[in-house]
Design the sequence.
């Protein structure tokens, strides 16, 4: 079955960096687009970034463009999100996501907290 396991979250200071990882299994990773989304306290889900299966096409929400970089290592079945110049408003639970046969699959999430 599809499994997505995020890691790398934690506490960072404003202006700092964190790198999130998402280990994928149960499907042919290099055939599918992947994305990151986040949910801040008391708010709804926000799409953050997406990457197509080959890794060369990436897309970002305006709120993170120029600060975050999505990438993937298809040999390791792993998705990444490099987050630089972090801001307190980036505080959220971050999820990786994929869509398989019309169904959304999500990881359990990893908490990112940015202090001012």
Sequence:
């Amino acid at each position: 079955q599809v499994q997505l396991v995020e890691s790398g979250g934690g506490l960072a200071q404003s202006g700092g960096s964190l790198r999130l990882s998402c280990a994928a299994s149960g499907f042919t990773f290099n055939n599918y687009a992947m994305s990151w989304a986040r949910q801040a306290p008391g708010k709804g889900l926000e799409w953050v970034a997406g990457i197509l299966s080959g890794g060369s096409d990436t897309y970002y929400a305006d709120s993170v463009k120029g600060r975050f970089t999505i990438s993937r290592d298809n040999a390791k079945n792993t998705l990444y999100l490099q987050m630089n110049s972090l801001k307190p408003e980036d505080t959220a639970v971050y999820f990786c996501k994929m869509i398989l046969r019309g169904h959304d699959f999500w990881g359990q999430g990893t908490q990112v907290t940015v202090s001012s």
In short: The chain has a mean pLDDT of 97.
